[in-house]
């Protein structure tokens, strides 16, 4: 339960139709199995105490009475279990039979929730046996004397984890145009459970998966779907036990059909509430009845996948699609800006590194969209004190392969004159030595842009901006920054995608060598002709920083939670001390460097995380990061 995680389960017992005693024993065994495995919220299928397929046996008083007896026994059994359980049964009230979800915890039936929408088409004839619970709001007294509330609009709130708020719908309720889960979520429920008996026909599983995952996305919630399976009557249809656990559009766990597999995962209810808080159109209207339940406070061992590369799709097909889409967004942004300004030329500083390479590729695509000659791209290489033959040669090859106009301006003489003018000793390789070169390059690009009726295309990426790894008014500044919302981990894949699809052997080999070159600003002299200044040695691995950035900004996680997830994501690659070292560095730099982000040039947003001061990150430059650093220091 720490950090807002709660382990949940969807379980499908192999029932015997109408054998309530047998089914009750199975349900109790699964309750224990699930809680022994750490699950705190356990959902069973619709009408599982009797079996869904009893048909006209539901008219038998004996069956209905036996179902209640088993419910009382199940509730009593739950007394020693740490969890809340959702169990389906038929229940009669005032001569009407209802398809109910009983909510059980700590020896009590907390409430019963009736099904609202009864399918009465094709193979379904529920209205033959059951009444809709749409307007039902009452109390019933069980045989053991316990008084139980009955209502469709109930939210079950955990005292120890207040953000865990659970509501119920049953099977067909979800398949309707206006599912009850909508009003449940709009009343504050963060988790929806669905007790279902969905039969299997060709193609239905795909639709069902999309329906459940889509509802979890639309409602920004966790969704547990437990369906009837093997054991139900196969007189006319087959039930596959297709169980699903989804969160905010993601399928966290899915059973193998026809196996009655119990599935587990963990919901992050903190993340759910953070997402809702961010979405100001998600307005909560509290008109539900509430019931509280208790859980023991324990750490939740995470089984759900923690993605070490949240900006990069793991599947190659998805990744290629993402890369093409990002390149198009970047190019379209630049296309519009070039059209609006009537600039004849795009001016780019080409270092032979990743970021400037991507900016050049984007500019080429924008020019293709405009039908403009690549010769109107002024690609400027500016060798300095740290330039190596490798990066210089790659820069030259890129420019030639792409048909841009090659311009070379050696900055060493100009920088030495500048150092003389300000009294800087060139042998002192301090921040002035480095930033003087960066600002000289920016001045050259700006002046060429003025001279050629052009605009300077910015090359810095999202990861650098998050860390403030840019020279203020140096490479920090441009007239349109095409990479400003592209994280470094994605930059690599964009360049690789271009290499794989460009159709030119020389361009492909050059791009692959750019990818193989250590990331460096090349502001310090090389050692034996090799790059001496490696960015990731100085600020830490970009894959770590991109992970930190995503989980801090996109998910709103506190440092301790980011650290916990990073240890899982990078287990076996980085030790805990290494991760913590760079986490501290990330938070320190993130807060200290906001002043650079507060005056960023325009640039297109390509993903869900961005730091534009006009859009996604409206943060004061003088905000204090103390409470974040204090938490990091305690880790």
UniProtKB/TrEMBL annotation:
EC class name: ligase
Read off the Gene3D superfamilies from this record.
Carbon-nitrogen hydrolase, Glutamine-dependent NAD+ synthetase, C-terminal domain, HUPs
The UniProt record gives the binding positions of ATP as 349-356, 459
Q: Which domain of life is it from?
A: Bacteria
SUPFAM superfamilies noted in UniProt: Adenine nucleotide alpha hydrolases-like, Carbon-nitrogen hydrolase
Q: Residues in the active site?
A: 46, 115, 171
The UniProt keyword set, sorted, is: ATP-binding, Ligase, NAD, Nucleotide-binding
Task: Kindly list the positions annotated as binding L-glutamine.
Answer: 121, 198, 204
Homology family: Belongs to the NAD synthetase family.
* The protein's name in its UniProt record: Glutamine-dependent NAD(+) synthetase
Q: Which organism is it from?
A: Agathobacter rectalis
- Lineage, highest ranks first: Bacteria, Bacillati, Bacillota, Clostridia, Lachnospirales
